[in-house]
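# step 3/5: fold
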Amino acid sequence: MNWLLSFIWLVPIYPLISFLGIVLGRAVFSYFPSLRSSASVTTEMNEVSEKAVSCYFPKSWSLFFTLSATLLGLFHALASLFWLLAQSPTEITVIEKNIPWLQVADITFSFGYLLDPMSVMMLFVVTFVSLLIQIYTHGYMHDDAGYAKFYSFLSLFNFSMLGLVLSSNLFQTYIFWELVGVSSYLLIGFWFFKPSAAAAALKAFLMNRIGDFGLLLGLLSFLFFTLSWWQSYLLDHSNQALLSFQAISQSSVALLESAGPELTALVAILVLMGPVAKSAQVPLHTWLPDAMEGPTPISALIHAATMVAAGIYLVGRVYPLFQASEVALIVVTCIGVLTALIGAFIAITQTDIKKALAYSTMSQLGFMMTAMGVGAFSAALFHLFTHAFFKAMLFLCSGSVIHACDGEQDMRKMGGLFTKLPVTAWTYLIGTVAISGLFWTSGFWSKDEILLGLETYASRYDFAPVVFYLMTFAAGLTAFYMFRTFFMTFMGQYRGDAHVHSETPVMSWPLAILAVPSLFVGVALSGLSEELPSFASYLTPVWMEQHHQHTVSLFSDIGNRSQIIGLTGLLLAALIYGPWNLLSAELFRKLLAPFHKLSLKKFYFDELYSFIAAKVYWSVATATALFDRKGIDGLVSFTGQSVMFTGSVARYLQTGQIQLYIAVLFFALFVSTLFFLYKLQ
């Protein structure tokens, strides 16, 4: 056990070795033809020759490399989890190791790892969910030409995400933050021969660059205002690193004293831009639904359990920075509320099952961000933890449906799949119930803790009750649109043309395993039982001890109200989209036509950004180019032409004839003499 903790830094190294092994294996196999696989792989989307396929690692090797790396990481994660649970929540020992990496003048940047409750939680989520998704991927991508390449990208992403989770300081976090972005770009655009997939990858990359630019400015500003404090602090804490997470609380106070409240708020908001883009928060959210162009396992891994959760994770890591500015916390809250509501509204009208789940993810991340804004710190992380399991399961269920229906993603061409795909249907139902917060599943405990935190927040400010009621309404919408997807996909009569294939065990078993934490991990960590640890007791940092730890009881007022709201959403979805069709969906579309159009057009964000890019940005770029050509280049050209003209005139005076030079000399003397005589008079 101790050696697993001592070598915890190997957790991100394992997938890096896997990535390099698969990539370098391609080179080896290209030079040694006898080692190549003889299997020829073709798909409907991309036909490749045997030679093109065989230059990759054999499937079994790439699968073994990737699974072994993740499994080893899971062993370390479990060891760290047992180590954490063996400690008292009030006396938690934190492990941090750092080594100097880069020296710039008198500033030293370090690389290291930090093992504390937050990193242990994320470490377990990433390794556990990744392992199941990688097993599932074998069935989903088995006939794809880029099978080995896909697993190499999965390994690269795991390396980036696990490195981010274990980072001990903001400098190191930013490096892995960017690597996560690169990995997601490769995975979203994996089927790059599809124009839509290539465009989606580019869109995700550009949107995240906007957020990451703000994050970089925020980190540099934070370092600028607190550099002298850090240098003094590190003299007494040599085991920590510059921008260490362990000292974020004290350094945020130093920032407030050095820069003042206005600049502190600005720094916090700049830092927030990174999580806003990475966690698909309004207004940098439009990349997430388009990212569904990637293979479904990527949707489960990146867009449910890991990458999008990284934004919430970073906000949690630097939370004292936001606490130093009430303005920043209000901004966090407003962004979270808008994201939760807009994501829920758009999900109502989606017909693509993966895009409906994508907007659902966006909405749930809005819940987490709102919880961070109102001070329900542990509730936000608790929902991040539970959401990872049931949302990954929901995405994998959608992949199972798409795989069985020959690539069909339109729910209007599905229906009646409950009997044909029983494991998928039951696990999807479990995930739907969990995300709706019903029947004391995992989502009930985590989401209701957020609502309890919002209720506490509502009692402190005059405007805060609006936040509580809006988020309660969003919780009801969640139940409605999720049960809508369930009824449209699995109930009624089959409306599609494709032949529905049966489920495969390699894809069904991960669903069944994920169903267990989706049902029970919430109640296990709710603090309801004295024999089991409370999530909040371990995930509430020392600097938040003065804040109330929100814990929901089994039949609390907030729990009962959320059950009623969730059941109302379920009932309404059943009446409209259930097998009985008691209410007409078309009637509601006509009655709520303006809202329906707004939802269908996704609140016109894409049109707005297209207008900005095509009209505003293009006009500014055209004017700038014109100024550059006519103004800057014109001035430079005028200078050069002036010199050329002067030279062309002056060259007539340089004839090489001495008599001409003497004549000019005497002419100059003559003019000078006349001028001198004129002055004498």
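# step 4/5: annotate
The radius of gyration is 31 Å.
# step 5/5: archive (pending)
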